[in-house]
Structures are given as C-alpha cells and as structure tokens.
Design goal:
The chain is mostly beta strands. It contains 4 helices and 9 strands, in the order H-H-E-E-E-E-E-E-H-H-E-E-E. The strands form 2 sheets. Strands 3-2-5-6-7 form a 5-stranded mixed β-sheet. Strands 4-1-9-8 form a 4-stranded mixed β-sheet. The longest helix has 6 residues.
Length: 208
C-alpha cells in the first residue's frame, strides 16, 4: 500500500473534518449488493488507494478525478480501525481491467482496483475517476470491506446521485428502500481545492 500519497496530500484530515457527525442511535447496515463478474482474479502489483497513478507509468488517466472520503462504522456508530477496503470500477471507456472484459481501447494508465485500510477514526480515502456507464449499467463503483483479520464482511456498489441511468439499472432498482438507496448513492461535488477539475464525495459504510 502506498501511504505516501495519503500523507503528502495533506488533505485527508481536512476532508474528513467536513464529514457529518454520526448519530448515537443504532445505524442501519449498508445494503449488500452483487460482486459482479470483474472482481480481480489476482490483485495487481500496484493496488494502493490512488487509482490514478500506476507505479512505473507516467501517462495521464482518462476521466475526471474523484476523491472519495469514507468512514467504516459498526451499527453503534463506533469507528472500525484497520478494516480493509477495496474498490474497483471500469475505466473512462467503460472497460474493466479484467481478462473477461475486452482489452481493445482499455486505458493502460488507470489502475482499476485499489485497496487501503481504515485508521483509528474509521476513515479511509481513495483517488479514482468519476464512474461512467457501460452497457445496461448505471455509473457505479464496486466496494468490498474485510475485517482487520481479513474476513470478508460486505460487498456493495456506489452510484451517482441524480444520474438518469440509475432508474434503468436493475441492480440499483432492486435495493429495497429509499433509505438504503441513499446509503449507496454518492453526492459528487466540485472540489477545486483538490486541484484542477477534481470532484469529491463522502460515504459511510455501516457493518452489521
């Protein structure tokens, strides 16, 4: 895991400071969703939390940079320290870095998969791209959480608030309640303080 980007950015603490305080009442667990066919068969050599930079490559990633600030909590609202969080998604052309997806046109500079651990505050962060649609799927980012000892505990997907493709996506529509949909829907906003045309979004994962 590349921790240098985490530290050098100097933005993790300031980004998380803006996140809303979690109520003390019992929280509803984040809904489980399908893993999909493109979870890596084996992890790439570079699988840190910065999906825009692959070790040994200097090319520019296609797509709009997106900074994700998250927290991992239990249903009592307590932070989970040391949880392993993984994300994966297609590139800006709608292609996954996976042998089951087509290789032609794939963005060679997009990492496609990332992993990090939550800190003592339950906080984690990724730098990736704003998800794009492909085929019949609405834009989404897959996410998987493991306990600190490596036990898988949650697989879900995050969607983009207001995207018209959401209501045509059968996996999104299958989420049982409006509250559960909201829990896996990202409110993405402009974040010029993070550089250029960067976007940012916050999420909270509640492990039941």
């Amino acid at each position: 895991m590349n921790r240098r980007w985490f530290v050098k950015s100097g933005l993790l603490v300031s980004g998380l400071a803006a996140m809303p305080r979690v109520a003390l009442a019992a929280l509803t667990p984040t809904p489980q969703q399908t893993e999909g066919p493109f979870y890596p068969r084996e992890l790439p050599l570079d699988h840190d939390n910065d999906l825009l930079k692959i070790a040994g490559k200097s090319g520019r990633v296609m797509g709009t940079p997106l900074h994700l600030f998250g927290r991992i909590l239990n249903t009592d609202g307590a932070a989970i320290d040391g949880a392993i969080i993984q994300i994966w998604q297609c590139d800006a052309k709608g292609i996954y870095h996976h042998p089951r997806d087509r290789a032609a046109g794939r963005d060679p500079n997009f990492q496609g998969f990332g992993e990090t651990r939550s800190n003592v505050e339950g906080a984690c962060r990724f730098r990736t791209i704003k998800p794009v649609p492909y085929s019949w799927r609405a834009p989404h980012i897959h996410l998987k959480v493991f306990t600190p000892d490596g036990t898988e505990t949650l697989t879900t997907q995050f969607y983009v608030a207001g995207d018209p493709a959401n209501e045509r996506d059968g996996i999104y529509r299958a989420i049982a309640t409006e509250a559960e949909r909201k829990a896996v829907t990202l409110e993405i906003a402009q974040a010029p303080e993070l550089g250029g045309n960067a976007l940012a979004a916050q999420f909270t994962i509640v492990i039941g």
